[in-house]
């Protein structure tokens, strides 16, 4: 066999190996894709099954109702009602007692603190199956003045409304309680403009900032300050 022919074979052999390697790689990639697709289908099926079980387990008669309480007695009513639910054995008919609240940053005496603010003062939410016995337990709890509804018949909340309220309670960023109003005169108590008197021009509760117009060198100048840097003039 001539050197030329030997050289030709030497060139052709790697090409064949490359084709085989590429075919093997393509096959492995296809197998991986098939496995991933199967796994995804399995996870989706499990998720749907879990949703189905949850929907099946949840009694359709479970609804959210609103009860009215004496002002300032919301926490006391919640505690009393939960105690009655357990002592009277109706945990299978009355499921949750919720006071809608949200975190709020309050600035007082130059100090910033986070407090729980009641979204609907004087009202408490109850998830329950409405019936004579469950109605009796809730209605006769000390501090409860009645159910919210048309006439004497309690009215259940819409699911969308309940979801909105519960979502609002889970919001991560607390709101800043605004104690200023536009056009109000304030005094700067911290920073380079300390002791300046100005007028509130804009308020940004999300950032906890207030823009104040102060007189500087004979002209009004807008200055952005933190809520802690200004105080109301009383």
Topology overview:
Blueprint: H1 3-57, E1 62-69, H2 74-87, E2 94-98, E3 101-108, E4 111-118, E5 123-129, H3 132-139, E6 144-147, E7 149-150, E8 153-154, H4 159-169, E9 175-176, E10 185-188, E11 197-204, E12 209-216, E13 219-226, E14 230-232
Parallel strand pairs: 3-9
Antiparallel strand pairs: 1-5, 1-6, 2-5, 3-4, 7-8, 10-11, 10-14, 11-12, 12-13
Quick structural overview:
The protein has 234 residues and is α+β, with helices and mostly antiparallel strands. It contains four helices and 14 strands.
Keywords:
single chain; 234 residues; alpha+beta; Alpha-Beta Plaits; SH3 type barrels; 3 domains; flat; disordered N terminus
Give a written overview of the molecule:
By secondary structure, the protein is α+β, with helices and mostly antiparallel strands. It has 3 domains: 1-58; 62-176, Alpha-Beta Plaits, CATH 3.30.70; 185-232, SH3 type barrels. Helices cover 38% and strands 33% of the residues. The protein contains 4 helices and 14 strands. Strand 3 (101-108) and strand 4 (111-118) form a beta hairpin. Mean pLDDT is 80; it is low at 2-14.
């Amino acid at each position: 066999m001539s050197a030329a022919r030997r050289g030709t074979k030497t060139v052709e052999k790697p090409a064949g190996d490359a084709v085989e390697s590429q075919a093997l790689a393509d096959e492995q990639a296809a197998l991986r894709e098939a496995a991933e697709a199967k796994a995804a289908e399995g996870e989706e099926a499990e998720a749907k099954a879990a949703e189905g079980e949850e929907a099946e387990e949840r009694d359709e008669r479970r609804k959210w109702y609103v009860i009215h309480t004496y002002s300032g007695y919301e926490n006391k009513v919640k505690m009393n009602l939960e105690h009655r639910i357990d002592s009277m054995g109706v945990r299978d008919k009355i499921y949750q007692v919720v006071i809608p609240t949200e975190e709020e940053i309050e600035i007082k005496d130059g100090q910033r603190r986070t407090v729980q603010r009641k979204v609907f003062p004087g009202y408490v939410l109850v998830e329950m199956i409405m019936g004579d016995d469950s109605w009796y337990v809730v209605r006769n709890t000390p501090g409860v003045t009645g159910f919210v509804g048309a006439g004497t018949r309690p009215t259940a909340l819409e699911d969308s409304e309940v979801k909105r309220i519960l979502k609002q309670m889970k919001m991560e960023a607390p709101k800043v309680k605004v104690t200023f109003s536009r056009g109000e005169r304030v005094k700067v108590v911290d920073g380079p403009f300390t002791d300046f008197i100005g007028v509130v021009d804009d308020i940004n509760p999300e950032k906890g900032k207030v823009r104040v117009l102060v007189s500087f060198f004979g002209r009004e100048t807008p200055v952005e300050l933190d809520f802690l840097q200004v105080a109301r003039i009383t």
